[in-house]
Write a structure and sequence with these properties.
single chain, alpha+beta, seven-stranded antiparallel beta sheet, about 45% strand
Length: about 130
């Protein structure tokens, strides 16, 4: 897999934002061409007593949701990078972190000011109950 170091760094930032309670959401976006799968939205989810991720796959005509533990959820996303998504956007309360692939499929990570002032409510409730 190309860009393994960049992918690893990005997903490390995702895990850190979840563990420190700053995670708001993660979005896979910017497809090339007309694909059936348009976006994947990732939010925190508590299944019984375990913190998990809810992956919402938005297709042109429907949505499908998968609830997976954090490691499985992030592993599920990797095959979608570069096929069909060219960017992944991590929204935290500290910064918006974007991983983009250029035309040569080289991944870069950039940060800008945060869009969200509050972290995911499900995550905050889970962390406060620990």
């Amino acid at each position: 897999m190309p860009n393994t170091t960049t992918y690893s760094l990005f997903f490390k930032l995702v895990k850190e934002s979840i563990s420190d309670g700053t995670f708001a959401k993660l979005t896979m976006a910017k497809t090339i061409g007309n694909t059936q799968l348009m976006n994947i939205y990732i939010r925190a989810n508590v299944d019984e007593i375990e913190l998990k991720l809810a992956l919402t796959f938005k297709f042109q005509t429907e949505e499908k949701v998968k609830i997976l533990n954090i490691e499985e959820g992030l592993d599920e996303l990797i095959p979608y990078i570069n096929n069909p998504f060219m960017s992944a956007l991590l929204f935290t309360t500290e910064a918006d972190v974007t991983m983009k692939l250029n035309k040569k499929r080289v991944a870069t990570i950039s940060e800008k000011a945060p869009t969200f002032k509050n972290a995911d409510l499900v995550l905050l409730e889970y962390l406060s109950g620990k």
